[in-house]
Amino acid sequence: MSLRNRFLSIGVFTLLIAQTPSVSWAEEAKDPASNGPITSKREAMKVIQDLNNYKQTQISRVFIGHGLIKATDQALHHADNAIESCKKTHPDEVQLSEDLSAIHDDLHSQTDPILKKARKALNKTIQLEEILPAAQMKSILAVMDEDITKNSSKVEPEPITRLEDCQKFVKNAKRRNIAKTLNSSLNRAFGF
Asked: pTM to 2 decimals?
């Protein structure tokens, strides 16, 4: 296993283990041979640890792809919230509203097709790699998603309300080209 792959595997396993303190380590892990759905991080870790090195490398690639898709979804969600908040707070600012609508449309028209393609590629990888039965792999990803959702719900982002902040958001969105940044990460990860 290359150093890069070991690093990725360790990083993914660390992320999976460290995500939440709410795991009951006393619960009994399922027998990985059962191929049934995984319902806890402990069960997921047991299944992953029992895989050979090649499959552990492959599953880390799936985790990374899945994580990038989720991070992109989250970034789009935050951008949508900022756009909505600015429009709602400053309805009389016509130019601001037009700029925000253009950013929203551009962001989604460029990013949504790449996200759809990435999800399809991830599902194909899950099916073709035969790391684990597809249903079991998807249940591991669902356990990760639950944990991420639970932990991210602890942080409540402040909506953008000041006119200066909304204008700064527009300026930064135009300058940085958010869609290009998000898409380049997905394109690199999935080889598009």
From this structure: 0.74
